[in-house]
Amino acid sequence: MTGATRAQQLVLRGRGIVPGRVEGEALVSHETISGWGGIDPATGTIIERRHELYGVCFTGKVLVFPGAKGSSGWSGFFQSTRLMGTAPLAMVFTNLTTKAALGAIVTRVPTVTELDDDPVARIATGDLVEVDADNGLVVVHGPWSQACHPQ
C-alpha cells in the first residue's frame, strides 16, 4: 500500500479547541514553533533560523505541528497573523498547552488537538486535510496535488 493510499483512508479523532470546518493543504513541522521571534506575522513566515521550516509561509495552510514553544507572547504573534490576514487556515497540534490553546483561540482558526494518533507522524506536507473541529476530526484525503488535479 502506498503512502498516498494510506493517507486517503486516514481519520484522526481528537478534541476540537476552536470550532469550524475547513479543508486545505497541510504544512507539517516536526518541531515546535516559536511565536515571538519565530514567526513574521506580517508575512505568515517562519523566521526562526534553525527551524526546519525556516522561510516557509504557513498562510492559508493547515498547520500541523507538535505545539508551541517560547514565552506567553506566542498567542499575541499568532493573533497578529489573523489581524494581518496571514494566519494558517487551521491548526492541528499534539501537545496541548495554555499558550497553544490561547494562540488558537485568538487566531480564530479551526483547531484540533489530543488526537488518537500522532498527526505529525501520519500527515505529510502537501496532503489535502479536512479539519472538522466541531466534531474533533482530522481527515486526510490524500496528496494535495492529486486531490486538486485528478489524473
Automatic annotation (TrEMBL):
Keyword annotations: Lyase
Xref: CDD domains: AcnX_swivel
Pfam family, one: AcnX_swivel_put
Gene Ontology molecular function, alphabetical: lyase activity
Superkingdom of this protein's organism: Bacteria
Residues annotated as domain Phosphomevalonate dehydratase small subunit-like: 33-112
Database matches in PANTHER family: DUF521 DOMAIN PROTEIN (AFU_ORTHOLOGUE AFUA_6G00490) (PTHR36577)
Name of the protein in question: Phosphomevalonate dehydratase small subunit-like domain-containing protein
